[in-house]
Design a protein that fits this description.
Helix content: 40-55%
Largest sheet: 6 strands, mixed
Strand order of the largest sheet: 1-8-5-6-4-7
Number of helices: 25
Length: 646
């Protein structure tokens, strides 16, 4: 078996070789899906490499192959392998043509002509033969590699420390059957599973009830979709009532020890388990205990979180550090990294426990207390997250979700209680429901603007900031929660305003072109919406979506011979955010042609795009004065928010 597992260096700088310089060719079999990585996965790949620390090796994962003696048939890992092939070539590192797809002519044609695609000298190629997803992957990589803050040389050095495990399956393996099993197997043990075991162990051998209570809370919080209260399933809703009160939406404030002493004896041995006997399941009257929730329109709803559990744990840990005023024992060091990195989940917790100081005492001297306190903080933070951080809401099994800020409520009495969801409350005592609807909509718009601007969960620091503020407001004892929470929009908006302040400190900030921060353009869309929302219900249909491509309204590269290039094409007034597929449709045509030919796309696009289309008469007028006028207006709109605070 040892010979069947190899360490492959993605890039060997010393020998000037790379993973694709081997004797055998990698073949992607037909039963594998086509290349499909997009922004999220490719940006994550670049960030993972950039985050490698000095002297570290980074194991990027496994590549499972079948060695036929003539080729390596890739059974698992083809998306990662193809992305590495594209990445190396985008970095200017030559590779052999040692990667191909079985029976996929477009994919192979694109890889064979990858240098022309990268260098945009593909005008003589057969355009219909180029595979769109591979072209998109190249475009995404080029955009990120080309950013001013991207250090190419340093990145290449870090890439040389990336290792891929190549695992060969035994001879005579049924590949189709193996592939089927691999894609239906259970998930491997993850860092948060290991962390759970470590923290439980800190509670000690004589804390069985506390361990069980810890496990119940941890498992409920680990399911990030839906509302945490709904993940506590027990007979007669014992756990929900004890933790969240009769209304199921109180914030838990007791200790882990007290909760375990009150709740665990009521559950009885293993009664809290969600498992069922086979004899129960095959009964014709069998029903699971999972309960459905409904919104105020009596529509069945489900909710989807914007982050996964490992990232939520990191946010909760940062809230805990802030709340408990924990510092590093070496005052010159940070107790936790600024970057949220799920791959360093266990390392982050270990660092806090081993090096943290709370009220002058080392945390490692009483690990049990840390676990007890953090468990309650985890649950409190999750309740606040569910109520005040946006989710995607899906009604009546629809696949078309919308941004949502809802709170869980219950109707009925006793064992007949049923959950329903309505807008979270942002009003002071005595204010009207209409006021709350307006504030809730404003908060949804602001949070969704932040969400689509920071697509990587590693940089969603705004969530930590909001959760820390909410913790202070909702757990204080001044009795003025409604007064504080009514101003929540100001707290959210400050996250964007701070970025605007930083933007205007950048030299030549109004001529950054595609390097213009997405948050600036998204926040500008919010300000346009806020300004115009009451004028004939204008822009009522607008929502923030993942418009991940910066588009030039007057194109960078006008279609050959049709009209002139413009030396001010990168100016702020000429930019907006677009969905990538629309960007490719816009191509290199003139502004008035875009306005005329793409009305449906514009009407559903960003608000700055809509305004640019409204203001455009001809391409010459756009260049001469329309763009400058719009830019001045938009810049003033942004700067007005800074002025309000001065």
């Amino acid at each position: 078996m040892k010979d069947q597992v190899k360490e492959l260096k993605v890039l060997d700088l010393k020998n000037n070789t790379n993973i694709f310089d081997g004797e055998l060719q990698f073949i992607i079999p037909l039963y594998q899906r086509a290349y499909a990585w997009e922004d999220k996965q490719l940006v994550q790949l670049l960030e993972d490499v950039n985050d490698i620390e000095e002297g570290e090796k980074y194991y990027i994962g496994s590549l499972i192959v079948s060695n036929t003696g003539e080729k390596l048939e890739v059974i698992d890992g083809q998306q990662r392998l193809t992305s590495l092939y594209l990445l190396l070539n985008c970095l200017g590192i030559n590779t052999k043509h040692s990667l191909s797809f079985a029976c996929r002519k477009k994919s192979n044609y694109t890889l064979e002509h990858i240098h022309e695609v990268i260098n945009e000298t593909d005008g003589d190629l057969e355009g219909e033969m180029l595979q769109d997803n591979i072209k998109t992957g190249i475009k995404i990589l080029k955009e990120n590699i080309g950013r001013e803050d991207f250090d190419k040389n340093k990145f290449i050095e870090k890439l040389s420390r990336v290792i891929l495990y190549q695992i060969e399956v035994p001879e005579n393996t049924d590949m189709n059957r193996y592939f089927e099993i691999m894609n239906t197997r259970g998930e491997q043990l993850e860092q948060h599973d290991i962390l759970k075991a470590k923290l439980m162990d800190y509670l000690g051998d004589n804390a069985e009830m506390e361990k069980e209570m810890f496990s119940i809370i941890w498992d409920a919080c680990s399911d990030m979709d839906g509302y945490v209260q709904m993940h506590f399933i027990s007979k007669n809703n014992v756990v929900r009532k004890e933790l969240f009160g009769d209304s199921w939406n109180d914030i838990p404030i007791d200790t882990l020890r007290n909760y375990s002493m009150r709740i665990i004896p009521q559950l009885g041995k293993k009664q809290n388990s969600q498992a069922h006997k086979i004899s129960e399941i095959i009964d014709q009257d069998f029903k699971t205990e999972e309960e459905e929730g409904y919104n105020e329109n009596d529509e069945r709803v489900r909710f989807e979180s914007i982050i996964s559990f490992p990232y939520f744990l990191l946010h909760a840990l940062k809230v805990f550090i802030w709340k408990k005023e924990i510092t590093h024992q070496n005052l010159n060091k940070k107790i936790i990294d600024d970057l949220l990195d799920d791959k360093k989940l266990i390392t982050s917790f270990n660092n806090v426990i081993e090096n943290g100081i709370q009220k002058g005492q080392p945390i490692k001297n009483d690990r049990k207390k840390f676990v007890r306190d953090f468990t309650i903080c985890l649950l409190q933070t999750r309740v606040l997250f569910d109520e005040y951080i946006i989710k995607r809401e899906y009604a009546n099994n629809s696949n078309d979700g919308e941004w949502s800020l809802k709170t869980l409520y219950v109707s009925g009495q006793g064992s007949q209680k049923k959950p329903y969801f309505k807008n979270s409350t942002f009003t002071r005592v005595g204010e009207w429901d209409k006021t709350n609807r307006n504030r809730c909509k404003t908060n949804i718009m602001l949070e969704s603007a932040l969400r689509v601007s920071y697509t990587s969960p590693k940089v969603m620091h705004w969530i930590t900031s909001l959760l820390s503020w909410l913790t202070e407001v909702c757990l204080n004892k001044d009795g003025k929660i409604n007064e504080h929470i009514a101003a929540y929009s100001e707290i959210i908006e400050q996250e964007a305003i701070d970025e605007v302040k930083n933007f205007f400190k950048i030299d030549n900030c109004l001529n950054l072109g595609v390097n213009t921060p997405h948050i600036i353009l998204n926040y500008l869309d919010y300000l346009i919406w806020e300004r115009d929302k009451n004028s004939d219900r204008k822009y009522e249909d607008f929502t923030f979506e993942f418009r991940n491509s910066v588009e030039h309204w007057y194109p960078q590269n006008p279609s050959k011979g049709t009209f002139d290039e413009w030396d001010q094409v990168d100016r702020f007034g000429n930019l907006c955010l677009l969905q990538r597929n629309i960007n490719s449709q816009f191509s290199n045509i003139a502004p008035e042609a875009k306005k005329s030919n793409y009305k449906p796309q514009i009407e559903k696009g960003s608000l700055k795009l809509r305004v640019m289309a409204e203001r455009t008469s001809t391409q010459q007028n756009w260049k001469d004065f329309e763009c400058a006028e719009l830019e001045e207006e938009m810049v003033e709109l942004l700067k007005s928010k800074i002025t309000e605070q001065e």
